[in-house]
Amino acid sequence: MLLGELGVFASYAFAPLSLIVPLSAVSVIASAIIGIIFIKEKWKPKDFLRRYVLSFVGCGLAIVGTYLLVTFAPNSHEKMTGENITKHLVSWPFLLYMLVEIILFCLLLYFYKERNANNIVVILLLVALLGSMTVVTVKAVAGMLILSIQGNLQLDYPIFYVMFVCMVATAVYQATFLGQASQMYDSSLIASVGYILSTTVAITAGAIFYLDFIGEDVLHVCMFALGCLIAFLGVFLITRNRKRAIPFEPYISMDAMPGMQTMHDKGMTVQPDLKASFSYGALENNDNISEIYAPATLPVMQEEHGSRSASGVPYRVLEHTKKE
């Protein structure tokens, strides 16, 4: 993973941001194929297509979308010098974009923290907004480092350290929100929705900050957007086929035990339902329970013995009242 992330970090210095960000669909395709091979699940041939047909269709769509992205994406970008980055940073389109993003981020954060809006779109949109700034700063830092290695020193520009601090800060908070989302939602849902939102916002930020689509004709832009949509659909189908985790039941269900009589026919349950309040104790709907199920009592036994001269054997009289 470290080598992969280093490779992605270095790639930002050699290609446009709008091309690199959508190509993360390749990792989803690789994960699906490697998972099928190395998990070694036992399956019957007739179940294979039923279980993995969506994964195969998703992989095919993601490959087609990736091909369109590579073919019609912007293929030229300027050198990441300190002067160019400073010029883009103070340009009015990016300042307007930053204003809109800050307002939207504050609103989403308010609803998430104060109004308990724990919807997955809200959380992952916070991640996407932070991620757009992460990729913008990563491209700037990587480009300036590569130029410095090549002999054109860029580390003496203050903008390098500003971008580096922003890169680290946004990456840390992005991981924090992702961790919170992973505790509430399934990982496959996070992967699909997060990929779609993060890619869309990152491409928008790259197009505004680095002017990726300046000089591109309408056909190339439309085909690039079509490739993104096809890749989005492919990733959604791949992650949709993942197995969902079975929630742990904190009690033994009485009706799941073979041969155990239950009271469900009369509208009563012995154990609480997971969807209801988690509590033990009284039965549900037990208004008339005393009439049906009375506490078990031991019978009263009385022994009456005749005299020694009386004939016959001693006998026992079992006395039960109607109530008992």
From TrEMBL:
InterPro entries: Mg_trans_NIPA. It comes from Camelus dromedarius. Its main location: membrane. Keywords: Membrane, Transmembrane, Transmembrane helix. It is a multi-pass membrane protein. The chain crosses the membrane at residues 12-39, 51-70, 90-112, 119-147, 159-177, 189-211, 217-238. GO terms for cellular component: membrane. This is NIPA-like protein 3. One of its GO terms (molecular function) is magnesium ion transmembrane transporter activity. It is found in: Membrane.
